[in-house]
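F.,

This is the one I mentioned.
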């Protein structure tokens, strides 16, 4: 793994193609993995917030979402290979899954949004399989039921769209209980898929 250290946060120096391959290697493995895609604002928060920094650095793939992070790496003389945004990675996985199947679960967004995203994905990405959806508005008492729903779906890849840093904290907290292979923090991606 080639990492670029930006003020204590280790970003993967990885191309889109390599990121997709890594996700497939996670799917073939026996355990759960985390993929985070911080933008410049979340990177700034992570630089000053020790707990968030630890969460970001615990990721199995950490990619720079946004030109700001790529620019920061250039200024530091440690250019990252290319910009791999959360939405683009999600899109590339949906496309790739028509040839090498992946079971996706869409978690997050306002009520109705993940269902709309599901309907659009079926039309826009023929062959992509969504095995469950759940909106991102819940109380703590609902969490065990949400985790059961995800675990019973048989999903490989969980899109977690609760906004940053809530989604990263949620994934970090529940990683061991989630019976999936990859949890991805993807913020507003669910809203774009629902458009
Ligand atoms: N969201 C959610 N639960 C929450 C807070 C936010 O599901 O408790 C969803 C929100 O509806 C939106 C997504 O998280 O679909 C991303 O929110 P935001 O625009 O803040 O995301 P970011 O800037 O992190 O991409």
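My design for it:
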């Amino acid at each position: 793994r080639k990492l670029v250290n930006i003020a204590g946060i280790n970003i993967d120096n990885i191309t889109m193609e390599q990121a997709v391959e890594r996700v497939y290697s996670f799917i073939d493995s026996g355990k759960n993995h985390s993929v985070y895609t911080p933008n410049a604002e979340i990177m700034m928060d992570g630089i000053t917030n020790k707990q968030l920094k630890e969460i970001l650095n615990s990721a199995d793939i950490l990619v720079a979402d946004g030109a700001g992070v790529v620019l920061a790496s250039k200024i530091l003389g440690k250019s990252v290979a290319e910009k791999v945004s959360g939405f683009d990675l999600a899109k590339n996985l949906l496309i790739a899954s028509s040839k090498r199947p992946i079971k996706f679960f869409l978690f997050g967004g306002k009520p109705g949004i993940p269902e709309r995203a599901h309907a659009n994905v079926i039309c826009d990405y023929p062959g992509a399989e969504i095995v469950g959806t759940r909106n991102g508005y819940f109380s703590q008492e609902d969490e065990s039921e949400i985790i059961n729903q995800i675990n019973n779906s048989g999903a490989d890849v969980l899109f977690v769209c609760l906004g940053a840093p809530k989604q990263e904290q949620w994934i970090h907290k529940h990683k061991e209980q989630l019976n999936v292979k990859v949890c991805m923090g993807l913020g507003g991606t669910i809203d774009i898929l629902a458009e």
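The beta strands are 3-6, 9-12, 33-36, 61-62, 103-108, 129-134, 157-161, 182-185.

Talk soon.
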